[in-house]
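Issue: ligand-bound run for glutamic acid - logging full I/O for the record.

Environment: standard queue, default settings, no custom constraints.

Inputs:
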Amino acid sequence: MTAQAVIPGQGRVVTRFAPSPTGRLHLGHAMSAVLAHELARRAGGRFLLRIEDIDLARCREEHVAGISADLEWLGLDWDGAVVRQSSRLHLYAVALDRLKAQALVYPCFCTRAEIAASASAPHGSDAPIYPGTCRAIHDPDLTRPHCWRLDMARAVALAGPLSWSDNGTTIAADPAAQGDVVLARKDAPSSYHLAVTVDDADQGVTDIVRGVDLFAATHVHRLLQALLGLPTPRYHHHPLLTDERGERLAKRTGAPSLTAMREAGEDGLALAAALARGDYRPKTALRGR
Ligand code: GLU
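Outputs:
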């Protein structure tokens, strides 16, 4: 019988690694994957691999194969079949319909340029806060290209105060700061926010391990959980890896991909062990490919 330990009172632990195959994996991905794998294995739980490929224009099949090869190089095994978001679009459509039925979303016809040009728009975590231009359209022409946005003020009022547990600390959710986020894109039937929230619940994920760069998004995910009647997992946002100068390791700062490290003959198991211990010191930060 395989060990399927259950943390008393918490049920079986399920974690996941959920990369988007828009490029090669980097050290930051390795850290999330290693820590999520470690959390599951220590608890005798399950570690899932989900490919977040809803952005068909940017996702590439060669990167999907690269993800499996990189995880194997790190010595990480996953449970069950690899789930791909591109085959689950019906689930996101159902969730969006539910929000439509509650009048919590509205179609938005604005272009990126129009939103960027709205001079007074304060900036959220990574995109300008949407100024709400299309919120008041009474009779929208849905034959025109449009995305669907959450009516944040209505949603927050309906949900009331929310919080989540992050590394054991209670965090008060403040989704309003993110503005009317996109839940279904013009060019894709879902956005990251909607798909990740639906999938984590549908797959029974109990513990989400990911970089602190996604902390702001968690405010939105917590709200969507409340609106859709989904359970709230525990979150474990981890710090981002930095180089010796304290700069965040990222593709754009020249950090090497895992594939490049693997092909250069580096030891993936040693890397994974160091990341799990929290004492990995990047020596290759500026030698990127
Ligand atoms: N797919 C996201 C990414 O690659 C991560 C999703 C998550 O961990 O919530 O950045």
